[in-house]
Design a protein that fits this description.
Strand content of chain A: 25-35%
Structural class of chain B: mainly alpha
Shape of chain A: elongated
Number of strands of chain B: 0
Helix content of chain B: over 70%
Number of helices of chain B: 17
Low-confidence stretches of chain B: none
Oligomer: heterodimer
CATH superfamily of the largest domain in chain B: MetI-like
Largest sheet of chain A: 6 strands, mixed
Mean pLDDT of chain A: 89
CATH architecture of the largest domain in chain B: Orthogonal Bundle
Radius of gyration of chain B: 25 Å
Order of helices and strands of chain A: EEEHEEEHHHEHEHEEHHEEEHEEEEEEE
Distance between the termini of chain A: 38 Å
Shape of chain B: globular
Largest sheet of chain B: none
Amino acid sequence: MTTVELDHITKIFPPKTVAVNDISLKIRDGEFFVLLGPSGCGKTTTLRIVAGLEKPTKGRVYIGDRDVTELPPRKRDVAMVFQTYALYPHMKVYDNIAFPLKVRKMPKDEVDKRVREIASLLGIEELLDRYPRQLSGGQQQRVALARALVRHPKVWLMDEPLSNLDALLRIRMRAEIKRIQKELKITTIYVTHDQVEAMSMADRIAVMNKGRVLQVGSPREIYHKPKTLFVAGFIGTPPMNFINVVFGLEKDHYVLRGKTFKIIISDEMGRIIEKKLGVDKEVVLGIRPEHIGIVEDRGRRENNIVEAEVYVVEPLGTETIINVKLDDTIVKVRTIKEVMFEPGSKIKLYIDPQRIYVFDPATEKVLV
Amino acid sequence: MPSIERLKDMLLEGTGARLLILPALALIGIFVVFPVIWNIYISMTNYALTGPRARAYEFIGLENYVRILRDPSFYNTLRVSFMFTVFSAIIGQAFLGLGLALMLRAKEPEGVLGKITKALKITASILVFIAWIIPEVVAGYAWSAITSKGGLISMLLGINDDVYVRYPFETIVVANIWRGTAFSMILFTAALEGIPQYIYEAAEIDGAGPWYRFRHIILPLISQAILVDFILITIWTYGVFTMPFMIVGPSGQGGVAQIWTLYVYYDAINVYEVSYAATAANIMFLIVLAMIIVYLRAIGYLKKW
């Protein structure tokens, strides 16, 4: 049983840089937990605090039932994969992987068995006799993974381990890391700024910004129920569109009014917003690119159709991203149809009122 | 008239370029190569500083070399020089320098204690630096003063005598460590800076304690710097003259602390045997050369990753 718990962790780098601001997290046994956020959000510092490389200014760290706040890294039984791999340049691959075992004075034949086992798991047996500088980035990365895994640590920490790899290798290693993690069932904390990586690998994600955790949840929750503007705008490819509108009441229904369009929303949604904010207030309308439809003919739907001007079209093979200008905002529309529009032409879009989000611009929190 | 471009080509490549290094070569020839050859020649004569042999000296072949190899005082100086180098350079300067470099690099604890540590670090490195940059004559004078009867060190040790007379060898060893440690400290500090922080951190997470990290990570990674340091401080310590000369005199307090530079000086200036001194200098040159070749070999062997 290895859980990791952060209890009101704050880290201030002298003089006044608050890197981590009162974070509390509970990571479950065997879980693949991702800390996601833009650079400088404090996610790496948080990971380093778990590793023991940084001491929190306030708060406690627990691994299992043990309070490890005061323990040095070597007594925490964690393993870490660094962004830069941090292989020992003067040791061959074999010795790099064996290092954590040799430190613990494991018998030689046992070391040998373990090293070869992990090397075959990662497919690097033929590299054992080389020096790190003779390896490609991807190979070095695997050696770093092997070194972290070889002693079956309680917690596995990864600091953007894929960011130095090329796109193809990154996708392959993503699956591989997840497979190994599931196979060995090691509690894992993984830091990344890449939301695709986070979505595809995580059991749960903590989205961080400016030293705070904004939301913790499964990839589905984070995607479908973002709690703040930031989380909504960070997740998704491309991320959510935001349009400034005014929330109002017209005749017998609630509407969101843009400069050139109007969206009728359900009474249920409207009542919630009215209760929280009141009518004739400025709000932010959020809608994911994949939830905007392209209307080819007028059809039956008369409501919630907006007209926009095509700005640029990005064909991506399996899908097409159409950038349109709605009011003064560039809105991205994602469609799996192979369509082609001339920049400057008019296009009709259907916005599904069931799939929109409305945010309070002042607090940046979601209203509905 | 050649264009500027052509002129540049002529100067930077081919004959023109070679001509440009001629003045430097000439200076090296006059002040380095010629004295070495002259020294070899002189060592094969019976040239003396004064007397008839100063004017009418003769070629005597290897006679001086045969004589010096039978001279017990030469073996004494060999031994003293060797010990002086081992103790003051390798053991003293290199070890102390490495220790200081490690100490300077160590992470300071947070809070007041950290500030005190930091202040101590700065003070220590300034003191080490001062020893290195003050003129040698001043340093030599200071050392002979503090080690003479009633001097600071004599008093601290409770010796009511001239320390440099009672312990001449120890005195020049300590003085030379004091003077030369800064160089090793700087070199090792730079070498340690060259190891990325994450390597230390990786080792720490992998479970290595301070000694294990030092032994298996830091030491191998700075081994080249260590050898370079050994080469340089060996050469320099072997050539040290001013401070020992000022502290123990050319005879090295009756031979006890007579390193070879003092021996050469003594032979040439005190007993006027210039050709004999030249012989000693040549032999020492060969010894230093041999040591450097060994070191360079070792560096080549180390550089495998």
